[in-house]
Amino acid sequence: MFVTLLAQYPIVLIHGFDSSAHYLEYMKEVIQEQIPDATVINCEIGNGRWDSIFMEISQQIKLLAECISENSATQGGYIGVGHSQGGYLMRALLEEYNHKMAPMVRFISLSSPQGGFFCGVKSLCKGNYLPTFVQKLLFYLQYKDFAQSRLSPAQYWRNPYKLKAYAKKARSLPVMDNIRDYNIQRKINFMSVDRVILFGGPLDEVISPWQSAFFGVWKDGTDGSVSLYHDREEYKQDTFGLRSMVEQGKVEFKVEKMFHGDYTTNYKFIAERLTPYLRMN
């Protein structure tokens, strides 16, 4: 019997909101222990924690693209892994850049707000994801140019009570979902990876709703009830390729019983749950 061994692609890691590359060093070490021949690139957005909060999403994506392109090992393709906001950035990079730079061949999202983020009316803003002053700015200025140009979460802040304003004014998520400024290339790019692996779970004390990790959203007019990914119009109309990928069996929804920060610090998760998806064969 012959076994085909596929080349090990480089693995690119990107940190989340109010974070930096430093916080993914442990994950990098565990991956390298498990896959000794893997090149693991731990990218940082600008000045790390500060820029992860106050830099516009489009600029963060550009810097992520530069980090990847600067490493010649990625030219034949790479596996993209993002935690929290980093998973959203990696998805945005996939949609916007995959046709014009070294290609992402697999996308892995670790408890990331793929369906957006909102809390504070019926749902509580938990954890440390949004510092108190950022929460207040978002509530009062969420779709104003000031917030949209200076607070990265504002650009995927999907307020279920103000969906018209969200669709018109939020600078990033409506575009990534292809409900504004539709571009078929985004859909083509999203579908260009071999698999999309999504991790998330109900114990996550940060992402709101937690089902956003699986492209779920708050239902229109409430943050007390959730529409799962397959109930969304974006899915039914296949605006950015999620339905096509699901129907082709290329999306995996992995429900975990972990807190938000555990995805980057839990040895067993990284070694036994994440690492198998970092090997192509």
Instruction: Compute the separation of the termini in Å.
Output: 16 Å
> Count the helices. How many?
13
CATH homologous superfamily title of the domain at 11-116 and 181-216 and 227-276: Alpha/Beta hydrolase fold, catalytic domain
Please state the second-level CATH architecture of the domain at 11-116 and 181-216 and 227-276.
3-Layer(aba) Sandwich
Strand order of the largest sheet: 2-1-3-4-5-8
Biggest sheet features: 6 strands, parallel
Question: Any idea what the radius of gyration is?
Answer: 18 Å
Low-confidence stretches: none
H/E element order: EHEHHEHEHHHHHEEEHHEHH
What structural category characterises the helix and strand content? alpha/beta
Protein name: Palmitoyl-protein thioesterase
GO molecular function, one term: thiolester hydrolase activity
Pfam family, one: Palm_thioest
Organism: Spironucleus salmonicida
Would you mind describing this structure in some detail?
The chain is α/β, with parallel strands linked by helices. It has a domain at 11-116 and 181-216 and 227-276: Alpha/Beta hydrolase fold, catalytic domain (Rossmann fold), CATH 3.40.50.1820. Helix content is 35%, strand content 12%. The protein is built from 13 helices and eight strands. It has helices at residues 25-34, 49-54, 57-69, 85-97, 132-141, 145-150, 163-169, 173-176, 184-190, 233-236, 242-247, 262-265, 267-274; strands spanning 11-14, 40-43, 78-83, 104-110, 196-200, 217-218, 226-227, 251-255. The protein has a six-stranded parallel β-sheet, with helices on both faces. A two-stranded antiparallel sheet has the order 6-7. Helix 1 (25-34) links the parallel strand 1 (11-14) and strand 2.
